[in-house]
């Protein structure tokens, strides 16, 4: 069972360890776990935490590595029960202390610990031995590419028969080393990637606390007989307590609730008497919070957080929580604390190698997201470090968490069993976070280009949903993309760039939209060898994420005459098609679109990806294009053309009529009165205006409405581009949104 760390005394065991490769799996047979000092030949120094892919002497190694270090028990912990804690190790971990075997953990994100109280020598150095095995999955890869491309056989699109490791994006996804080729497991994420700690706890201690919060309701018996919020909040806590004394103890559990990030002097206290049996105990303690302050996303209010201080037989821990309700209806719409909300979202992954993830990275990324008016994040298919979720709690960013399963997973009973244990851990790790909004148990369970597909949706996904629901019975749990009102739209990438979007069935929740492009030359030169850059060596480019079929058959991007021109062409197309996907989806706000998540914020590794930023945090052209149209107030143009195609030039014959609707979105929860709306048409690069209009209109809160229709005859005397420029200003003259659309006048 997952254990909470909380505010415990601990000794940091990060730093310099020693390691030894075990390519032939000799360590067990040679009893490396009995070594007291790693002084024998073959042991080298290494810094922990780390992912071994990032170590120059190790690199993309698949197999087993042994680690060791010594430690002493500090004086201030010598009367405590002692636990050896690992934040995260990828993938199968065996641990010994002073030659005694502690146990095994499987997984990549799930933290784990072992009690070592009776195994350590208080007065001497103690030895930790860790055996970390991160092998290649034994699944077979078969070619599933029937399109004409210039790649050699091993670099064509390949599909796994059925992966058995539960690693999600870290083993099987599009944008990673070996992308979609027979090498698609490359970029191994193995290693002790998280913190290692020696933790001290008293004999009777709180192991874990699971929170449950709700808004208080009461029926209006004297009025309209309706259920209404009564101004209170209900906070209930399951307190898991371990009694290590060997005898029953009568004691009190106490709970104190105070404001954490806002001004409120109210202290709410409650206690109850319990009898703790030897071993594990679970006790419920519930408190009503008067005049509760709710947790909101940053754009709809303030993310109010409370601190719960829990006491049990002298032990004390603190944890933060928020009171909120996030619900969905039959139409797939979202309601936060009873308020209909629209999610301007972002898919996010810190790095393919989680030892790189840290508060500095998240702070920089999330500040940029707030500046872009993003209010929701979808993590999938992996789990981030706990600090990321804490930051989202405090910043007011709503979280949609996907369990680490992506493509091509086996539907065997063994995989179901092991994945169920891990999803239970994920639920226990994250359910207390105020930012948590909804779950998915699998990223894309039915994306297979093989005739005989594993039956994961009706087998694995069912059990995972039941297991996660036993931890979190309140939040919505989604089984997998492309069902239950969930959809991906990647025009020019996963869908044809010439698809008619007016004929597409649009679902409420767009959990991926976007396109692909090539990063800037400075970044590209860091991972593509010079002799493979131009003309492109297609095997190399495909390995590093340039999907030939997507770029040249779907997006139909032109190569151009130089590498710089090709980079620009891909980025220019991505910027335009993403901008127009956003406009198209936001014009359909609540009809039916409820949420939309760009795929991705940044590339998770050196790759030709789909991010706004590449792995080195250099922006793609799409960054500024998206920032302009993800604002809470958006003016946009829906040109009238059939078929309706996004991301292409808008071509009109001279003398023909152009017609377009002017849409304005207001995602604020207040009306904007007397907004100034303006549009004008001019020749590109010239200031001469050929048509314009300015008018005033109230913008209703939480709305998307057509405010005007442009009807204009393309002049007969000009071949070239016309630009439709638009803006919205508030009553005080402040610009709320600017936008444009380019029309090409041709013969």
Automatic annotation (TrEMBL):
Pfam families: Glyco_hydro_2 (PF00703), Glyco_hydro_2_C (PF02836), Glyco_hydro_2_N (PF02837). Residues 332-479 form the Glycoside hydrolase family 2 catalytic domain. One of its GO terms (biological process) is carbohydrate metabolic process. The keyword Hydrolase applies. The keyword Hydrolase applies. Residues 10-130 form the Glycosyl hydrolases family 2 sugar binding domain. Residues 235-314 form the Glycoside hydrolase family 2 immunoglobulin-like beta-sandwich domain. GO terms for molecular function: hydrolase activity, hydrolyzing O-glycosyl compounds. Keywords: Glycosidase, Hydrolase. PANTHER family: BETA-GALACTOSIDASE, BETA-MANNOSIDASE. Belongs to the glycosyl hydrolase 2 family. This is Beta-glucuronidase. The lineage of its organism: Bacteria, Bacillati, Bacillota, Clostridia, Lachnospirales.
């Amino acid at each position: 069972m997952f254990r909470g760390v909380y505010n415990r005394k601990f000794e940091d065991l990060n730093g310099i360890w020693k390691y030894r490769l075990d390519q032939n799996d000799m360590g067990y047979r040679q009893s490396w776990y009995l070594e007291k000092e790693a002084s024998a030949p073959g042991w080298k120094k290494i810094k922990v935490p780390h992912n071994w892919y990032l170590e120059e002497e190790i690199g993309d190694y698949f197999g087993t590595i042994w680690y060791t270090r010594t430690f002493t028990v500090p004086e201030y912990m010598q009367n405590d029960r002692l636990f050896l804690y690992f934040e995260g190790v990828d993938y199968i971990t065996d641990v010994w202390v002073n030659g005694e075997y502690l146990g095994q953990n499987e997984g990549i994100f799930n933290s784990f610990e072992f009690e070592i109280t009776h195994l350590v020598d208080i007065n001497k150095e103690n030895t930790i031995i860790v055996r970390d095995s991160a092998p290649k999955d034994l699944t077979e890869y078969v070619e599933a590419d029937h399109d004409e491309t210039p790649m050699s056989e091993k670099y064509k699109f390949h599909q796994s028969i059925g992966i058995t490791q539960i690693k999600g994006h870290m083993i099987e996804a599009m944008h990673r080393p070996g992308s979609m080729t027979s090498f698609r497991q490359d970029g191994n994420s193995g290693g002790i990637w998280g913190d290692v700690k020696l933790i001290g706890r008293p004999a009777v201690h709180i192991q874990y606390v699971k929170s449950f919060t709700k808004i208080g309701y009461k029926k209006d018996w004297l009025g309209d007989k309706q259920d209404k919020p009564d101004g209170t909040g209900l906070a209930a806590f399951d307190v898991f307590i371990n009694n290590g004394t060997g005898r029953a103890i009568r004691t009190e559990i106490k709970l104190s609730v105070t404001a954490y990030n806002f001004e409120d002097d109210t202290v709410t206290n409650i206690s109850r008497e319990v009898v703790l049996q030897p071993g594990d105990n679970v006790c419920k303690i519930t408190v009503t919070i008067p005049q509760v302050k709710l947790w909101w996303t940053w754009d709809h209010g303030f993310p109010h957080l409370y601190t719960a201080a829990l006491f049990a037989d002298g032990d004390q821990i603190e944890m933060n929580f928020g009171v909120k309700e996030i619900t969905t209806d039959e139409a797939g719409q979202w309601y936060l604390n009873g308020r209909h909300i629209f999610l301007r979202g972002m898919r996010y992954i810190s790095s393919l190698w989680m030892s790189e993830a840290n508060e500095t990275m998240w702070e920089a990324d999330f500040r940029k997201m707030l500046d872009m008016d993003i209010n929701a994040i979808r993590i999938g298919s992996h789990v981030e470090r706990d600090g990321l979720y804490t930051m989202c709690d405090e910043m007011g960013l709503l979280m949609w968490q996907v369990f680490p399963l992506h493509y091509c997973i086996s539907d065997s009973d063994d995989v179901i069993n092991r994945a169920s244990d891990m999803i239970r851990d994920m639920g226990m790790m994250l359910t207390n976070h105020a930012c948590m909004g909804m779950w998915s148990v699998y990223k894309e369970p039915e994306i297979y280009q093989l005739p005989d597909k594993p039956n994961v949706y009706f087998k694995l996904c069912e059990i995972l949903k039941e297991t996660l629901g036993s931890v979190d019975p309140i939040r919505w749990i989604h089984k997998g993309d492309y069902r239950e009102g969930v959809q991906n739209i990647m025009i020019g990438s996963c869908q044809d760039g010439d698809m008619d979007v007016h004929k597409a069935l649009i679902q409420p929740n767009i959990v991926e939209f976007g396109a692909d492009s090539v990063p800037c030359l400075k970044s590209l030169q860091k991972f593509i060898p010079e002799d493979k850059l131009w003309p492109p060596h297609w095997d190399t480019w495909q390995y590093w994420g340039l999907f030939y079929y997507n770029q040249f058959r779907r997006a139909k991007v032109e190569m151009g005459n130089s590498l710089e021109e090709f980079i620009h062409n891909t980025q220019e197309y991505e910027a335009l098609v993403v901008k127009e996907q956003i406009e198209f989806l936001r014009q359909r706000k609540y009809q039916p679109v409820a949420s939309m998540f760009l795929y991705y914020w940044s590339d998770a590794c050196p790759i030709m990806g789909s991010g706004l930023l590449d792995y080195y945090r250099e922006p793609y052209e799409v960054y500024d294009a998206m920032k302009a149209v993800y604002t809470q107030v958006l003016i946009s143009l829906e040109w009238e053309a059939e078929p309706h195609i996004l991301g292409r030039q808008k071509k009109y014959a001279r003398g023909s009529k152009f017609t377009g609707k002017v849409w304005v979105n207001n995602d604020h929860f207040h009306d904007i009165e007397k907004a100034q709306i303006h549009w004008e048409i001019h020749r590109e690069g010239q200031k001469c205006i050929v048509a314009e209009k300015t008018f005033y209109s109230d913008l209703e809160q939480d709305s998307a409405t057509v405010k005007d229709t442009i009807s204009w005859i393309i002049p007969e005397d000009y071949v070239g581009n016309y630009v439709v420029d638009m803006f919205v200003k508030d009553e005080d003259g402040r610009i709320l949104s600017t936008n444009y659309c380019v029309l090409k006048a041709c013969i």
